[in-house]
Specification:
115 residues, mainly beta, 4-stranded antiparallel beta sheet, 2 helices
Length: 115
């Protein structure tokens, strides 16, 4: 999952397609020009034979607005490589409190940084 997140951050469509299950891989991938990914939180993961799952939250900014993408992903192992099948995804706005850490990763408070 971390490698797929990195591929999204670096807009590496070739890697994403290679790591997608061939039965579910889209023909084309488009990346939003103003999306800045800032954090990946792995909440749960596991495997059972050739089936695997990852539950994660990815935080990102588009322009001046912050969002979270939460997904419960499913994977299948093919020839010792994990391939992404699909996931249940929820997008939501991120609303840090004034004194919360800034989601940009600066280590400063939200109100003194991007807020």
């Amino acid at each position: 999952m971390r490698s797929r997140y990195t591929a999204f951050v670096t807009e590496n469509a070739e890697y994403l397609k290679r790591s997608w299950h061939p039965d579910y891989c889209p023909d084309t991938l488009e990346f939003a020009a103003d999306t800045q990914w800032t954090q990946l939180l792995i909440l749960d993961h596991g495997e059972d034979g050739n089936s695997g799952h990852v539950h994660f939250i990815a935080r990102f900014r588009e322009g001046t607005e912050w969002f979270e993408l939460e997904e419960k992903s499913r994977f299948e192992k093919i020839d010792d490589d994990w391939k992404y099948l699909a996931g249940n995804t929820d997008f939501r706005p991120l609303s840090p409190g004034r004194n919360d850490a800034c989601p940009c990763g600066s280590g400063r408070k939200w109100k003194k940084c991007c807020g």
